[in-house]
Amino acid sequence: MSASPVTGSNVTASPDPARQLLRHTLATIAYRGGKALRGSPDQFGSFHIGDKTRTPAQILAHMGDLFDWALSIAQGEQAWHDSTPLSWNAEVDRFFSALEKFDDYLASSEPLHGSAEGLFQGPVADALSHIGQIAMLRRLAGSPILGENYFKADIAAGSVGLNQAVPRREFE
C-alpha cells in the first residue's frame, strides 16, 4: 500500500486502471445526477416541453436501462430493455440501484466481458448527456440547480448513492 498524494490515506493500486476510472466516472454520475434529481418539484417527472421530447421520468428510466445494460455487458450476457417509467421517486431509486449494481460488479474480481472503453463510450457517456438534459429541464421547469466547480467536488469511486458529499463551491 502507498499513501495517496491527494487524501493521504492508504490505498491499494488497482490492477486495472481503466476499471478504476470507470468506477470514478460512476461516482461522478452519482454526484452530478444526485444534484440534478434532489429537490425537484413534485410534478417534475412529468414535465414536458414538446411532443418529440422525453419527460424527466422517461429520461431517468432510460438511464436506469443504460446501467442495467452496462452490467449485462460486463457480465457477458448483453441484454437491453426499454422500461416503462415508474413514479418519479421509484425511478430515482431504480437509477441509483442500477448504478450501484454496476459499480459493485466493477469493484469485484469478476471478469469484465466488455471493454472498459466500450462501456465508457456507450452507456456511461450516454448517462452523462442525460444528466445534462435533466439539469436543463430543471431550469426550464423553474427549479434550476446551482452551478458548481466540479473539479473541487468530493467525488470518490464507490460513492454511487443518492446521498452525496455537500458541494464545496457552488455559484449562481
UniProtKB/TrEMBL annotation:
InterPro entries: DinB/YfiT-like (IPR034660). It comes from the Bacteria. This is DinB-like domain-containing protein.
